[in-house]
Amino acid sequence: MRTSRLAILAAAAGLLATALTGCSFSASATASPDDIATLAEDALEAEIGQRPEIDCGDDSIP
Fold first, then answer.
1. Is the pTM of this model over 0.90?
2. Which terminus of the chain is more exposed, N or C, with fewer CB under 10 A?
């Protein structure tokens, strides 16, 4: 029984390490300002029934 608990803890630690590594990669990802603007325009159009024009600038968005 002690061995199975250690195996479960080791597996959990591995999953946690993998999850934390994934978070560090996503933190450095960027998105196109045009893509973000389009997503925001789509969401607002669905919410209020009118499509706004959104300008997110020219720089990539983290």
1. no
2. N
